[in-house]
Predict the structure.
Amino acid sequence: MDLSCSQQHLGRRRALAAATGLVTGALLPLASARAAGPAYANPVIWQDFADIDVIRVGGAYYASASTMHYSPGAPVLRSYDLVNWEIAGHSVPVLDFGAKYDLNGARGYVRGIWASSLAYRPSNRTFYWLGQIDFARTYVYTATAVEGPWSRLTTISTPYYDAGLLVDTDDTLYVAYGNTTINVAQLSPDGRTQVRTQQVFTTPSSVGTLEGSRFYKINGQYYIFLTRPANGQYILKSSGGPFGPYTMRQVLLDLRGPIPGGGVPHQGGLVQTQNGAWYYLAFVDAYPGGRMPALAPVTWTSDGWPVVHLVNGAWGASYPVPAPPRQVTPLIGVDTFDGTTLKPRWEWNHNPDDTKWSVDNGLTLRTATVTDDLYWARNTLTHRVQGPTSTATVQLDHSAMRDGDRAGLALLRDSSAWIGVKRDGGATRVVMVNGLTMDSDWNTTGTGTEAASATVPGSRIWLRATADIRPGAARPGAFSYSTDGTAFTRLGPAFSMGNDWRFFMGYRFALFNHATQALGGAVRVTRFELSVP
């Protein structure tokens, strides 16, 4: 790996900056007509799930996504129809890759889980997750069920950047990886070590950057599916084996996407249904909300190249459903924190201090950090925002807060704002705070300014944040509160959610409780609801 982290960022920045004018890509015609019938709408998931890998095992589809500094990492989504998705678990239970992921003396923002790969090995009925961390080494985790438990199988010294894991028909494990220079590695039969690695392709200068490998064997041919960030998709094909030689073809370039104001569908992966049809699950840059999965049917030319089915020269806003819809656990709705574990829809900002939180028919957050900077505070619990607009409402018992404590509900990204409770001098106020900011190296530049406040009677309050994440411009977020759960009062000015892409992860709703004086305080969240208009 000869690209530093900063060079990787620069390549993606240049590519995204170039992807401004959207024109129809030159694609081959659809090989066969499709029957009319029930349709699905794109994006199939209007939440932030980027760098998708997608597979089918039997009658179920599974997809993995990037999570960077959020923990647990690498969520595994599950669907039975490619349209309705639920979060089944996480492949990386804890980001145990160094102190920065514990917010211990350093921070891991925009590091951690980048594009990675999910595969299933029939010979031992095991799921494999493979990804590089910090451009230093590669980690492999395995589980016999996507819900877990997942455990680390091995660490490999070669960092397989933007890797795609292939389980070949003879059970050999191969990994395609790299940026511009594409390599293929062969792993040992037990998947623990690298047997060999070889460069198989150099991207032509006329194309620029290719990365985001997905590795397939289809009808005896080997394919490496690659993205030109963030406006194109290419594919390599070899009939001579996994190490090539490979020839390249463009799949799409500057294609108009299905989300108004959003980017070009790209990256992601190909998957075949049980009845033999093929689909491409890509994502669309759609900030401030993040990168949203979109699905399109694919056909193949007689000489073995994939063709995306377009609608009026663009990625369709809708297509016929691949299969009869099957209900799964919704990605929105109410969570009363029943039971004793968090549901997989939740991820912490960095690793939590597990001694400072608990679930027992309600979520208790005890202060875990003394700081005036939310970006340094441990045990901030996040939930993806649902697009195009959604509202999060939490019921908070603040009776056990201590002087100096801050607890509430944030719109969290590199520019953040929150509504919450401040306890100072024995008095409790509800406040709206904005101006929490980071610079381009993800260092804090602003810890927030109190923009509005009101006195709070009693020990219970309802906090609400509404987020408009339609892409194409900065969008407003708004905050309000209630003392009875019914009548809500707006607090503070509208918050402008920026749509710059460089933080990669989109805005999230975040529950937090941190101290500014001393540890010992706590709050209890008894209800969270994510709703759409």
